Amino acid sequence: MKYLIFTVILSFVSTYQDTNPTSETGFVINDEKKEIEKTIHALFDAMRENDAEKAGALFAENAEMHTAFITAKGEKKIRSGTVKEFLHAVGMEKPQVWDERIRNLKINVDGHLAHAWMEYDFHIGDKRLHCGVNSIHLINLGEGWKLFQIIDTRRAKKCK
Predict the structure, then answer these.
(1) pLDDT, tens digit, for every residue of 13-26?
(2) Distance between the two ends of the chain, CA-based, in angstroms?
(3) pLDDT for 54-101, tens place per residue?
(4) Could you say which of 3.40.50.2000, 3.60.110.10, 3.10.450.50, 2.60.260.20 is the CATH number of the domain covering 21-154?
(5) Is 119 exposed, middle or buried (0-12, 13-18, 19+ CB in 10 A)?
(6) What is the pLDDT of residue 10?
(7) Measured distance CA(93)–CA(106) in Å, rounded
(8) Is residue 12's pLDDT more than 50?
(9) Calculated CA dihedral for residues 89, 92, 98, 104, nearest 10 degrees
(10) DSSP symbol at 24
């Protein structure tokens, strides 16, 4: 009987840990992942809305932005930009909506650091301009999850 009770308790504890995983620092990861996902979706919503102020509030101080791409000659390059430049572009009035559509979002969390990886298609209006992958680092310094570094790949061909 003791063995049966022990087995039932062990099964319950194992199930609880699997559905509510925590990082070494004790954060409940599922809840954190939901907040991170909200931050990421808020960025793309702000882009669609031309709302630079909303987008700017999502970035941590000293955040970085980069793009990895291959030139027409086949050269592998990386270009760095500033959040200020990005926000200027987001806030400009546009004849058509900038619509970055993400899929296959994967989030990893350890304490106050997180990494999100997702595929995307970037559309202007109904036309797909390019596709690639976003790799986003986020940090939570007590004011919610903020975007700290974004690097993306861009390609016009071989999109899914």
Answers:
(1) 444 344 445 555 45
(2) 56
(3) 999 999 999 999 999 999 899 999 999 999 999 999 999 989 999 999
(4) 3.10.450.50
(5) middle
(6) 40
(7) 32
(8) no
(9) 40
(10) T
Closest to 123 measured CA to CA, from 41, 48, 49: 48
Helical H segments across the chain, by residue range: 2-19, 29-49, 52-56, 83-91
Rounded to an integer, what distance in angstroms lies between the CA atom of residue 56 and that of residue 60? 9
134 neighbors 43 (Cβ within 8 angstroms): no
d(CA 130, CA 100): 10
In the chain, the amino acid numbered 109 is: V
Alpha carbon distance 125, 96 (integer Å): 5
3 state DSSP class of 121? strand
Neighbours of 83 (CB within 10 A): 19
